[in-house]
Specification:
By secondary structure, the protein is α/β, with parallel strands linked by helices. The chain folds into 3 domains: 4-86, Winged helix-like DNA-binding domain superfamily/Winged helix DNA-binding domain (Arc Repressor Mutant, subunit A); 93-156 and 272-297, Periplasmic binding protein-like II (D-Maltodextrin-Binding Protein, domain 2); 159-269, Periplasmic binding protein-like II (D-Maltodextrin-Binding Protein, domain 2, 3-Layer(aba) Sandwich). The chain contains 12 helices and 11 strands. Strands 3, 4, 5, 6, 9, 10 and 11 form a 7-stranded mixed beta sheet that branches. The longest helix has 27 residues, at 60-86. It comes from Chryseobacterium ureilyticum.
Length: 300
């Protein structure tokens, strides 16, 4: 089934004559415009524009399609505007991407009080950056910056990646091994403990191990659980080790439910960024979400 947004994008390209002009008028990225156009051309089965330099010249079939859809699209847009005016208040909807653990630890508690509609999306960071660029997401929380000129990144906090364990882990024995400053002994002691990992991203463990021992871990965690928050809950049972961002377990460490075992020879820190498109219709809503994150991160 054809996506109505493809027709809207087609109309914008036809009227502006460029992909950039269409992107500016629709407040989406140029790659997003190109994707809509290629999808529509694949659907109808023929080219709609000839690309001459930066100009998009409609083909004869493109002209026929425009004449067929322009008036219905205009009527639909008028209906949309009139409907919005007839309601007491139009509630905007924004889509935000982040990792599952970040959502649970920060934004989840505020969702019911938001003055706008919210769609939360979980995924890998490269995928979320791509969806932000294409206009599918409006804001992402990420430790990685993309290279698209349509996206701006704003640093707002940092996370330290630390080694934590259950309250029954023998930290005195580990401290004795640390005093030797022998990397092989330290690594061997750690490998002999029970480890937790996640079914998805193991990057934190890989980064921490490589920084401290010069290579990726050559063992597999004993227990694989759904996410990092699951690891924290399991560690509260008393045993085991895991490498996690510090903000996820600050309260548990403060309460003595989980132990900070080691920060590593060198501290491993990631900068956290807000990622958003430079042109957006939802700046007020995005600023509201940013404020909530700054409030939460300020407590950690």
């Amino acid at each position: 089934m054809v996506n109505l947004e493809w027709y809207r994008t087609f109309k914008a390209i036809y009227k502006t004559g460029t992909l950039t002009g269409a992107a500016d008028s629709l407040f989406i990225s140029q790659p997003g415009v190109s994707l809509h156009l290629s999808s529509l051309e694949a659907y109808v089965g023929y080219k709609l524009f000839d690309r001459t330099g930066r100009k998009m010249i409609p083909t004869e079939r493109g002209k026929v399609l425009f004449n067929a859809v322009a008036e219905p699209l205009t009527k639909l847009e008028d209906v949309e505007k009139n409907f919005q005016k007839s309601t007491e208040k139009h509630t905007p909807t924004i889509s935000v991407g982040m990792c599952f653990e970040t959502f649970q630890t920060t934004l989840e508690q505020y969702v019911s009080s938001l003055p706008f509609n919210l769609i939360i999306s979980f995924g890998e960071y490269p995928e979320m950056l791509d969806q932000l660029d294409k206009g599918i997401l409006d804001l992402i929380i990420t430790p990685k910056k993309g290279s698209s000129p349509n996206i701006e990144h704003e640093a707002f906090s940092s996370e330290q990646i630390i080694l934590v364990g259950g309250k029954d882990v023998d930290t005195d024995a580990f401290k004795k091994v640390l005093k030797t400053k022998d990397a092989e002994q330290i690594e061997e002691w750690l490998k002999n403990e029970k480890w937790y990992g996640t079914t998805g991203d193991m990057e934190h463990l890989f980064q921490f191990w490589t920084l401290n021992f010069g290579h990726k871990p050559n063992f597999r965690p004993n227990y694989i659980v759904p996410n990092l928050n699951s690891i924290i809950r399991c560690l509260k049972g008393g045993a085991g080790l895991a490498v996690v961002p510090d903000f996820l377990c600050k309260n548990e460490i403060d309460n003595g439910e989980v132990k900070l075992i080691w920060e590593g020879k060198k501290k491993l820190e990631n900068t956290l960024y807000f990622g958003s498109r430079k042109k957006t219709n939802y700046q007020t809503e995005i600023d509201h979400i940013k404020g909530l994150f700054r409030k939460m991160m300020g407590k950690n």
